[in-house]
Recover the amino acids of this structure.
């Protein structure tokens, strides 16, 4: 089940990495930033929320292994801290600016001038080149190493502990109780057999009473044996061979990559036709469309009673965004902006990539922030992602699924998405300055 969840999320990850690299080549850094955050929010809020609500259609409550939930929660919390560490460093040591507005003719007086204190978006300065960018690369490498360690832990060394379900644990308890009861019944039967050979002054009804007692004691074990076990849920075993399945997966991935390239090419037409910010477009369309297969599979598995796989698909998708997509895109961004060309050899290219962190030259004036993925997010992104991951890990660690928890996750996703819309509007229109005049 774990391998299936990883494979299911891995092939969609390849498509999204290809999409992000094309977007960076076309100077759409805000689109990539919004897509990354939107993918994380969709993986920890919308996907598990819809899966829980879909699974509640046929079953009020479903259970899964809390041990697996604990591992996924730990990896999610680590990935969030490592991913947001450059943002924390920039919030502490980044520059702040004061923007003031002159007095308007409508407003008079000596104190009509208003100033606004804010922190601008990341710029390519000496702070970024000397400290933030190397720290970003270190965080990206640590995220990828955590991904490899997590795969080794969950799929090889501790797979039996992770993927055991509460149903199997209850089954083992019932089998042990049946075995103990059968031993007691055999001992009582042997004692009754020896007692029947000795003369006794008791009436013959006692033997009937003992046999009746044996039957009454044996009946619980029989009823326990005949008690139907809960179904495991899911679909039937596939009839495809490994070669056929691999071929279809690779073909579908190539087709999705082609569609992703077309999607990036038409972004400019969409932005010119509709008043949509590129980041909000990435939060919604670019984050949710490539993960459609994850949503369909997760809801389908939950409706068939296999909510454990549905939850694991959501957590695996969010983890692969943080532990695989982000490191690859960060390294690609640094490699692309290190002054490399297609004719450079591998050795020379790697040397330029390494020395670019030491010899900066005129990078401050020539670099374009829209061509880079800096792994430094605004404050609203930081708080929204951390709160969402905390809510998901809190609900996920309980080991139970119902429509109430799913509805809470969906409502939180809707609130955060609406908050993004207003936050982007405030940043783009400068309403923080207008608010000062309204209060007068």
């Amino acid at each position: 089940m774990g391998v299936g969840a990883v494979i299911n999320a891995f092939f969609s990850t390849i498509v999204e990495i290809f999409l992000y690299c094309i977007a960076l080549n076309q100077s759409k850094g805000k689109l990539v930033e919004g897509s990354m955050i939107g993918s994380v929010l969709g993986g920890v809020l919308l996907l598990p929320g819809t899966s829980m609500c879909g699974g509640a259609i046929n079953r009020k409550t479903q259970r899964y292994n809390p041990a697996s939930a604990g591992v996924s929660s730990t990896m999610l919390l680590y990935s969030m801290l490592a991913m947001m560490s450059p943002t924390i460093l920039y919030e502490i040591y980044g520059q702040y600016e004061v923007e003031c507005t002159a007095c308007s003719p409508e407003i008079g007086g000596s104190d009509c001038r208003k100033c606004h204190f804010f922190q601008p978006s990341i710029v390519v300065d000496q702070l970024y080149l000397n400290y933030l960018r190397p720290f970003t690369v270190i965080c990206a490498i640590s995220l990828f190493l955590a991904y490899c360690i997590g795969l080794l832990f969950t799929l090889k060394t501790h797979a039996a502990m992770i993927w055991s379900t509460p149903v199997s644990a209850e089954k083992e308890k019932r089998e042990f109780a049946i075995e103990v009861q059968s031993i007691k019944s055999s001992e009582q039967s042997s004692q009754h057999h020896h007692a029947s050979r000795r003369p006794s002054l008791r009436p013959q009804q006692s033997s009937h009473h003992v046999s009746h007692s044996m039957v009454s004691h044996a009946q619980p074990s029989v009823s326990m044996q005949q008690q139907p076990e809960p179904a495991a849920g899911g679909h039937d075993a596939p009839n495809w061979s490994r070669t056929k399945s691999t071929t279809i997966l690779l073909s579908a991935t190539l087709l999705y990559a082609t569609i992703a390239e077309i999607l990036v090419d038409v972004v400019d037409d969409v932005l010119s036709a509709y008043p949509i910010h590129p980041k909000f477009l990435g939060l919604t369309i670019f984050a949710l469309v490539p993960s459609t297969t994850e949503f369909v599979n997760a809801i389908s598995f939950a409706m068939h009673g296999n909510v454990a796989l549905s939850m694991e698909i959501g957590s695996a998708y969010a983890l692969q965004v943080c532990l695989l997509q982000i490191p690859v895109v960060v390294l690609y961004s640094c490699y692309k902006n290190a002054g490399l060309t297609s004719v450079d050899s591998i050795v020379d290219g790697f040397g330029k990539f390494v020395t670019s962190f030491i010899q900066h030259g005129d990078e401050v004036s020539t670099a374009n922030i829209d061509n880079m993925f800096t792994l430094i997010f605004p404050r609203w992104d930081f708080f929204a992602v951390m709160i969402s991951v905390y809510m998901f890990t809190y609900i996920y660690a309980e080991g139970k699924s119902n429509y109430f928890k799913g509805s809470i996750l969906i409502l939180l996703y809707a609130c955060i998405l609406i908050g993004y819309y207003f936050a982007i509007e405030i940043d783009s229109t400068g309403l923080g300055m207008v608010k000062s005049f309204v209060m007068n």
In short: Residues 171-193+215-231 form one domain. The beta strands are 62-63, 97-101, 114-118, 400-401. Residues 16 and 290 are 7 Å apart (CA to CA). The first strand starts at residue 62 and ends at 63.
